[in-house]
Amino acid sequence: MKILMVCLGNICRSPLAEGIMRNKVAEKGLNWEVDSAGTGFWHIGESPDPRSVLTARKYGLDITSQRARQIKPHDLDHFDLILAMDESNYRDILRLAYSEQQQQKVAMILNYVHPGHNRSVPDPYWDDDGFDQVYRMLTEACERVIDAHS
Ligand code: 4NP
């Protein structure tokens, strides 16, 4: 499997999702590719938000080597599964898809925990206290994604 985690800025939520998924994939000895990207361009080249770095570190993960990038049309060919953090990311990713095969690769990550509910991972950018909750939601979601595809 090749999995791409996508949020708006690629500095808060999707870097955590990438770090959590990379760690779980390694623990389980799976040969999966894991990456992340943002739908927006504002933070290209930046390190993850310091609050995401600290939250990851608290749980034993180092995400400091990640750098933000913007999703590109080729990602919809390269990756098998493109996981959106919220509905706005989901719509923006689908705008890049030009075939049904590409559209079918895109899903809301929390639908792996609450199927069909289209719940969003809350954007913690304006809420310092939101990062721990995001971490816990993403941990559960990543476990379900692995259960569903391994
Ligand atoms: P992310 O969070 O999409 O989880 O990386 C955000 C990062 C930056 C902004 C918004 C959300 N921003 O407005 O710059």
Model description:
This protein has one domain (2-149): Response regulator (Rossmann fold, 3-Layer(aba) Sandwich). The protein is α/β, with parallel strands linked by helices and 150 residues long. It is 41% helix and 13% strand. Helix 1 (13-27) packs across helix 6. The protein starts with a strand and ends with a helix. The longest helix is centred in the C-terminal third of the chain and has 20 residues, at 130-149. The chain is globular and about 40 Å long. The mean pLDDT is 98. It binds 4-nitrophenyl phosphate (4NP). Residues 7-13, 38, 42, 123, 125 line the site of 4-nitrophenyl phosphate.
Number of helices: 6
β-sheet strand percentage: 5-15%
Largest sheet: 4 strands, parallel
Order of helices and strands: EHEHHEHHEH
Question: Mean of the pLDDT scores?
Answer: 98
Strand order of the largest sheet: 2-1-3-4
Helicity, as a percent range: 40-55%
CATH topology call? Rossmann fold
Which ligands accompany this protein?
4-nitrophenyl phosphate
- Based on secondary structure, the structural category is alpha/beta
Name the CATH superfamily classification. Response regulator
> How far do the termini sit from each other?
9 Å
Secondary structure layout:
Layout lengths: L1 E6 L5 H15 L5 E6 L11 H9 L16 H4 L2 E4 L2 H10 L3 H4 L2 E3 L21 H20 L1
Parallel strand pairs: 1-2, 1-3, 3-4
Helix pairs in contact: 1-2, 1-6
4-nitrophenyl phosphate binds next to loops.
Concise summary:
By secondary structure, this protein is α/β, with parallel strands linked by helices.
Tags for this model:
150 residues, four-stranded parallel sheet, 6 helices, binds 4-nitrophenyl phosphate, alpha/beta, single chain
